Amino acid sequence: MAIVLYRIDDRLIHGQVVVGWGQPLDIRFIVLIDDEVASSEWEQELYRMGVPPEMEVHFLSIADAETQLARYRADARRGILLTGDIESMRRLVDAGGVSSVNLGGIHHRAGRTQRLRYIFLSSDEESALRELAARGVAVSAQDVPGARPVPLDDLLAGVAS
Amino acid sequence: MSNVGVPAPERPLESRDAERPVARAIVAGHGDFASGLVSAVDVITGRGAQLIPVAVPGLCAEDIEQLIRDRMQESGVKVIFTDLQAGSCTMAARRILRGMSDAVLIAGANLPTLLDFVFSEQLPPIDAAKHAAERGRAAITVLGPAGK
Questions:
Q1: Which chain B residues are closer than 8 Å to A18 by Cβ?
Q2: What was the ipTM of the complex prediction?
Q3: Would you tell me how many other CB atoms lie within 10 Å of the CB of residue B116?
């Protein structure tokens, strides 16, 4: 499988993704799943300018991703798939082929409780993650490769920090 | 915008100048990049108060954008220095500057960049920023076996 990391990160493409994960994993492409970005040339250009020339970026709506991920999984190179929220990733899990999910950055918003320095979750979001785990998806939080992965159970039990 | 995860508002560093310089630029980036560089500028020149350091731990993209926008409006500065082209501060700054013809973003700033900027008070801030970017780029030197 050429997509080596399925990551939820509300900052989408940023330093941790491009440099933190991109360099040690030799990432050659990013598939960014976001309806707003997929519909905006300006947003796409913004994100493209942030990646080095040897790294491709593909932009897909959630609906297109549900049907088109097979070709990225068949790519011989290594790639990262990014969504900006849990619900988008849940839909990709529903579509099949996602065995593990990395929680890379879900930051503060009203109604969310801090679980880690970079993870804040509402009760609905916690339920959604538990549901993913119950379906056999390995869910863990890890902002950068050198950090200890925090399994979802530890994250939600508050024993992670 | 929430303040959770945001350190207490960072005051411009004390300057050794008799008159405190007016802030002329924002410095934003990962971790303590901004406060570290501004501290270094102040130690070297006493002119650190020209720079407003902004840190963004724990913030989502929208809150980063709002924080930088607030700092720009409070201070009236039109120059932003950031650390990494792919960084979320850079992304936020580009969104803020979209459609603004009187502001500039310098991504990839380093200490020589900021040192040149704080000594270019005779130039309009945007011109000073562009000049500083060239100085910063030229200041990277390889020494030892691979260099001269």
A1: 86
A2: 0.81
A3: 19
Instruction: Give dist(CA B46, CA B26) in Å, integer.
Output: 17
pLDDT digits (tens, 9 = 90+) for B51-94: 999 999 889 999 999 999 999 999 999 999 999 999 999 999 99
The residue among B13, B84, B17 whose CA lies nearest residue B52 is B13
Taking any CB pair shorter than 8 Å as contact, residues of chain B touching chain A are 2, 4-5, 30, 57-61, 63-64, 83-88, 90-91, 94-95, 98
* Distance in angstroms (rounded) separating the CA atoms of residues B100 and B98: 6
CB contact under 8 A, A17 and B86: yes
Q: What is the pLDDT of residues A69-124, one digit of tens each?
A: 999 999 999 999 999 999 999 999 999 999 999 999 999 999 999 999 999 999 99
Q: Which tokens hold the place of A118?
A: 């970079």
- Of B2, B91, B95, which is closest to A14 when you measure between CB atoms? B91
- Residues whose CB falls within 8 Å of the CB of residue B88, separated by 6 or more in sequence, listed in order: A11, A14, A15, B56, B61, B64
Question: Degrees (nearest 5) of the Cα angle B89, A160, A134?
Answer: 100
DSSP state of A20: I
Per CB-CB distance under 8 Å, the chain B contacts of A117 are: 5, 57-58
Q: Are A38 and A61 in contact (CB under 8 A)?
A: yes
Which residues in chain A are closer than 8 Å to B60, comparing Cβ atoms?
10-11, 105, 107-109
Residue B27 vs residues A21, A55, A69, B76, B138: alpha-carbon distances, Å: 25, 27, 39, 14, 20
Residues lower than pLDDT 50 in chain B: 1-6, 8-11, 13-18
Listed residue (A143, A139, A138, A145) closest to A125, CA to CA: A139
Residue of A nearest to B62 (CA): A11
Hey, what are A108's tokens? 């503060």
